[in-house]
Write a structure and sequence with these properties.
Layout (H helix, E strand, L loop, with lengths): L6 H5 L17 H7 L8 H5 L5 E3 L13 H10 L6 H15 L4 E5 L2 H14 L3 H6 L10 E5 L7 H5 L4 E5 L2 H6 L5 E7 L8 H10 L4 E4 L9 H7 L4 E5 L11 E5 L1 H9 L16 H15 L3 H17 L8 E5 L10 E5 L9 H10 L4 E3 L18 E5 L7 H18 L2
Bound molecules: pyridoxal-5'-phosphate.
């Protein structure tokens, strides 16, 4: 160890030091209290001084997206206790998921973005094992053009470009048909994107040129049936995020689709070294966690989930009654992503004298800390969500039990304070 540790460094601010597992040796009262339940683990958020938040935003990556249901957490804790062969676990999980999700084959990846990487790599390298080593820098002789609608260029382009590909943009169905060349390796579709060309046409034309079709549906459950809708529509590869609506580990994703392509994706994935996917490792805990999350999610019911989210939105709205000019409305974004009830709050800024960005700050600064949907007070943060300076958006679907009450109370305080301003 380069840096010599003295006693002070080691013991920090009087923490438990070397014998951290032993509660009796702790010298700071609140730490002693916490670690008395040491078999449940220390609260490392507290130890690190990181303040947890109430997620009234939605499945935003930077807000850690979602929390895992108890049965998923329990499955992970159990899986953590014993070593396994990762290839065997990948194969078994893939087979199980393919059956449950009604597709030919499946692979657990480290996220939807990683599914885009190894799925694209599969299209570039299939039937050509040495290409696995060559991408993305040595593309000689490899097909490298990915056709995409201009309106589908998005924040995950880089995952596809990681494989040495470049985009060929089209806008109309006619341009699409003419864009295919002997260098075309894949046709990519952003499921929540808007554009002139339908999913059905996208698949049909690609297949008439024998080119595989990818659909990124990362944020597009619920409804539950989307997990098989797009593979059954003919998309050769479909990606979902494991840590958004599915509520698996945040660092997981699903790559679903054709067996030959999933096999090719595996060759480009961890645990194989010297592959484009090696840095996108999923561990046994994550693989098991995603399988458990899929089991949990398939046990849910679309109508019941929607009713629960509406109930939360209504409860929050009920806290805001009789604040002058405040209007509330429950809405479901039109597009495929975040397709769940949200609460939309608008008001006349002449009476409620606060802009949305300030509401965000006040909610964030309060106790407990609350994060509103980032569309609040500004431009729409996600496809299909409204925005505007006098607009507050509450994403209710990631709230935990009882948090709707807290969010409603705090919002009322903030808006009432602003109404009292002179
Ligand atoms: C969130 C998202 C991703 C990335 O998902 P991760 O699981 O975080 O890697 C990719 N594409 C779209 C459209 C997304 O919304």
């Amino acid at each position: 160890m380069a840096r010599r540790l003295n006693r002070r460094t080691f013991l920090g601010h009087g923490t438990c030091g070397l014998l951290a597992g032993s509660a009796a040796l702790c010298t700071v009262p609140e730490l002693a209290a916490k670690s008395s339940t040491s078999n449940k683990g220390l609260d490392y958020y507290q130890k690190l001084g990181v303040t947890p938040l109430i997620n009234a935003a939605g499945t935003y990556t930077v807000l850690s997206a979602s929390t895992m249901p108890d049965q998923v957490q329990a499955a992970i804790a159990l899986a953590a206790k014993q070593p396994v062969n990762l290839n065997e676990l990948h194969d078994a999980a893939g087979e199980y998921l393919a059956k449950r999700l009604r597709c030919e084959a499946a692979l657990v990846t480290s996220g939807a973005a990683a599914a885009l990487v190894v799925g694209t790599a599969a299209c570039v390298t299939r039937g050509n094992d040495s290409a696995v080593l060559n991408i993305p820098t040595d593309m000689g002789g490899l097909k490298n053009e990915v056709i995409i609608q201009r309106t589908h260029r998005y924040g995950y382009d880089h995952a596809i470009r990681n494989c040495g590909t470049r985009f060929v943009e089209v806008e109309t169905l006619e341009q699409y048909g003419q864009a295919f060349s002997d260098r075309t390796v894949m046709a990519h579709f952003f499921n929540a994107g808007e554009g002139k060309i339908s999913r059905e046409d996208w698949v049909r034309v690609a297949h008439s040129h024998n080119v595989p079709c990818f659909n990124d549906a990362a944020a597009d459950v619920p409804p539950i049936s989307n997990l098989w809708n797009y593979t059954q529509m003919g998309f050769d590869l479909v990606a979902f995020s494991g840590g958004k609506g599915l509520r698996g580990p945040q660092c997981t994703g699903l790559l679903l689709g054709r067996k030959d392509l999933i096999e090719a994706a595996k060759k480009n994935n961890s645990p194989n070294s010297n592959t484009v996917g090696r840095g996108m490792k999923v561990a046994k805990e994550e693989i098991v966690g995603l399988v458990a999350a899929v089991d949990w999610f398939l046990g849910q019911d679309d109508a019941a989930m929607e009713a629960e989210y509406r109930k939360r939105a209504e409860l929050i709205a009920s806290h805001l009654k009789n604040i002058p000019t405040v209007q509330t409305q429950i809405f479901i974004p039109e597009v495929a992503a975040n397709h769940v009830p949200h609460l939309l709050i608008t008001y006349d800024q002449n009476r409620v004298k606060i802009v949305g960005s300030e509401v965000i700050q006040k909610m964030r600064a309060g106790k407990p800390r609350i994060e509103l949907n980032p569309s609040t007070g500004g431009a729409p943060a996600s496809a299909g969500l409204p925005g505007g300076p006098n607009t507050i958006v509450v994403g209710v679907w990631m709230l935990q039990s009882g948090e709707d009450q807290i969010v409603g109370r705090r919002l009322r305080e903030v808006l009432e304070d602003a109404t009292a301003r002179t």
